[in-house]
Amino acid sequence: MPLVTSKEMFEKAYQGGYAIGAFNVNNMEIVQGITEAAKDLNAPLILQVSKGARAYANHTYLIHLVQAAVEETGLPIVLHLDHGDSYELCKSCIDGGFTSVMIDASSKPFAENIEITKQVVAYAHDHGVVVEAELGTLAGVEDEVKVNAEDSSYTRPEEVEEFVTKTGCDSLAIAIGTSHGAYKFKPGTKPQLRFDILEEVSKRLPGFPIVLHGSSSVPQEYVKMVNENGGNMPGAIGVPEDQLRKAASMAVCKINIDSDLRLAMTGTIRKYFNDHPADFDPRQYLKPARENIKKLVAHKIVDVLGCDGKA
Ligand SMILES: O=C(CO)COP(=O)(O)O
Ligand SMILES: O=C[C@H](O)COP(=O)(O)O
Ligand SMILES: [Zn+2]
Ligand SMILES: [Zn+2]
Predict the structure, then answer these.
(1) How many domains does one find in the chain?
(2) Which of 90, 137, 174, 296 gives 20 to 30 Å between its CA and that of 160?
C-alpha cells in the first residue's frame, strides 16, 4: 500500500470514537520502533516530520525511511509535515511526496492566518494532499520558538466556522491547555484540559476532525530513569492519559506525540550507559531504545488512542 492521506482515517476515527497517533520521526530507530508496534497491533499511523527533523536528518532520508516502513508493514501510513511555517515549506513537502501538511500560522493575526492557510490548501488540494491548520497558541517549545504560558491562548470557538469555511482546511489543531515539551503543568497543580472548548468547537463543526498537539503524557518511569542515570529533568509533567482518552472519544482524531518518544529513548540510553560503561557499539544501546519506543507506542495505541485493529 502506498502512503495515504488522513481523510478516510479521520472519518473512521470520528465515527468510531478513537484517535490516530501522530508520532514525530527523526531517525531510523524511531521510525522502526513506532511502525513495528503499529504493525503488531494493525493500527493506522501518521508519521510526522518537523522543520527541525528535516534540518537534522535531511528530507530525502526521512522520506525513504518512511517509505521503507510502508513496505515493511503494509499499513496505511500518512507522511505529514508538522508545524509548517510558510507556504514555501509546505509546497516543498507536497512536491517531495508528503500526503499531508500542517500550516501553522496561528501566531499571526486571524485574517493573515486565513490568507496563508487558504494558499496552502489551494496548492495541496490540487496535488491530492490534505491540510491541517491551527487556531489558538500552545505554550512550550516548538521549532526553537519558546512561547511563554502568558503568551499562549486558548482557541476561540466563535472563530472556527469562519476559519474552516474560508480556508477549506481538512483538520484543525486547537489549543485547550496542552503544550509542547516535557514541562506542561506546574508541579503541584492539577493538569486539566478545557473540554468545554473542545465541546463547543465540535458543536460548531459537526463531524470535523480536530487535532491535539502537545499531547505527550511524560511517563514518570522514564523521567525517573533519566534522573537516576545522570539526567536532570525535575518537575517534568505531561497530559494525564485519561484526559487524552476522553479527547479521543470526542472530536479529536489526531493526537501528536513526540516528547514521550524522546524520553523513552534518552532514559533507556542513559541507563544503558550507566549499566554498561565499557560498551561503545551504538547498536548495543540503540536496540533497547528502539524496543522501549515500540513498547511505549503499543501502550499509546491500545490504552490511549484506541486505534488498534483499525488499519
Ligand atoms: O505536538 C507535538 C508535535 O507537533 C508533540 O507534542 P509533545 O511535546 O507533547 O510530544
Ligand atoms: O511540536 C513540535 C515537535 O515536538 C517537533 O519538535 P522539533 O521542532 O524539535 O523537531
Ligand atoms: Zn502552533
Ligand atoms: Zn505540535
Answers:
(1) 1
(2) 90
Whole domain around residue 281: which residue ranges? 7-305
Q: Which of 134, 142, 180, 217 to mutate to test the pocket of ligand 1 (most atoms within 8 A of CB)?
A: 180
The span from the CA of 83 to the CA of 133, in Å, is 9
Q: What is the CATH number of the domain that holds 111?
A: 3.20.20.70
Taking residue 64's Cβ as centre, other Cβ atoms within 10 Å add up to 12
Query: Which residues are CB-neighbours of 251 under 8 A, at least 6 positions away?
Result: 14, 198, 201, 202, 205, 208, 209, 210
Reported ipTM: 0.98
Give the number of the atom of ligand 2 that is nearest the alpha carbon of residue 53: 10
Q: Which atom of ligand 1 is nearest to 83's Cα?
A: 4
Residue 26 gets the label, from left (phi > 0), alpha (psi -120 to 50) or beta, of alpha
Report the chain's mean pLDDT, rounded to a whole number: 96
Is 2 within the bounds of a domain?
Answer: no
Q: What angle do CA 107, 234, 287 make, to 5 degrees?
A: 90
Summarize the confidence of residues 118-147 as an average pLDDT.
87
pLDDT tens-place string over residues 188-200: 999 999 999 999 9
Does residue 204 sit within a domain?
yes
